[in-house]
Write a structure and sequence with these properties.
Elements lengths: L8 H7 L6 E4 L3 E5 L7 E7 L6 H7 L1 H17 L6 E3 L15 E5 L9
Antiparallel strand pairs: 1-2, 2-3, 3-5, 4-5
Helix pairs in contact: 2-3
Bound molecules: guanosine-5'-monophosphate and zinc ion (ZN).
Guanosine-5'-monophosphate (5GP) binds next to loops.
Length: 116
Amino acid sequence: MSGTDPDCVFCKIVAGDIPAEIVSETERTVAFRDLNGQAPTHVLVVPRLHAADIASLAVAAPDVAAALLVETRRIAVGDGHEAYRLVFNTGADAGQSVFHVHGHVLAGRDLTWPPG
Ligand code: 5GP
Ligand code: ZN
């Protein structure tokens, strides 16, 4: 795992090279609204450093993985939601399309179970 990947869209958002609606920034994480929101709150929270998925990040930098998880609740509460769903699509067959780990923070509507 390297610090950044020049071809990665989320590294470019972290660097400010691609615009995004930033919700919060910390020393280790950046959160921004999903371009194709699926709920009134649909925020992606990413580490500043590049890692493909949450398990890889947890192995390589557990402190950053923990910081990312802590940030998810702040994002939901910041949008006025106590309850939220946190999704990490992991692997292409599970729907992951951007291979820079991102937690989807979803809230503000009924979230059915099981997910599709
Ligand atoms: P995944 O399918 O990998 O779990 O989620 C990727 C998410 O990133 C999708 O929900 C997609 O809408 C979002 N996304 C992809 N490219 C961009 C972008 O350039 N800006 C923003 N804000 N969201 C993006
Ligand atoms: Zn990246």
